[in-house]
Amino acid sequence: MLYLHKNRICHRDIKPENFLLYKENDESHIKLIDFGLAKRVVPNEIMNKPNGTPYYIAPEVLKGSYTTQCDIWSMGVIMYIMLCGKPPFGGKTNKDIINNVLNGTYAMKSEIWQAVSDDAKDIINKLLQRSADVRLTAQESFDHPWI
Fold first, then answer.
1. Would you state the pLDDT for residue 88?
2. What is the pLDDT of residue 15?
3. Angle at alpha carbon of residue 60, lines to 56 and 87, rounded to 5°
4. How far apart are CA 102 and CA 142, in angstroms?
5. Count of beta carbons in the 10 Å neighbourhood of residue 49
6. CB 48 within 8 A of CB 41
7. Would you state the pLDDT for residue 119?
8. H-state helical runs in 29-129
9. CB 43 within 8 Å of CB 51
């Protein structure tokens, strides 16, 4: 994400299906794919076209006014799923999921979270801030102790 954002590119559809392993038996090389919704942006450009997948879409995208910070939210959702096996904002229908994303309430109270480090929980909490202005940036995320 840091590389994209430094080069003024907003992916706008970050989700697990858009990551590939670079080569067999090497889990350290992961590639981001599917730039069909990506957009070149000027610094602090406000976008308004809704894009993304309900589980991973940032609340500000749903509200129609967002920046590259929407990618950071999506990474927080992916990290949450990777650590506990389910999305932070679930629902039976896309409408339910979207309402839960807009509400922004999620929990880390199940038994599985007891085995997750405080640093991991901290970065997820900072990536899933409903307000994009207080959410970690790509650089701040990269510099986080858990990373």
1. 97
2. 96
3. 25
4. 26
5. 10
6. no
7. 98
8. 59-63, 69-84, 94-103, 118-127
9. no
Strands 19-23 and 39-40, sheet pairing = unpaired
pLDDT in tens, 86-138: 999 999 999 999 999 999 889 999 999 999 999 999 999 999 999 999 999 99
Please confirm, yes or no, whether 13 is among the known catalytic residues. Answer: yes
Give the largest Cα separation in the chain, rounded: 43
Amino acid of residue 84: C
Catalytic residue among 13, 118, 122, 143: 13
Asked if 100 and 92 touch (Cβ cutoff 8 Å), the reply is: no
CB 76 within 8 A of CB 64: no
CA 80 to chain centre: 9
Place of tokens 């889990």: 27
pLDDT of 26 > 80? The answer is: no
CA 104 to chain centre: 13
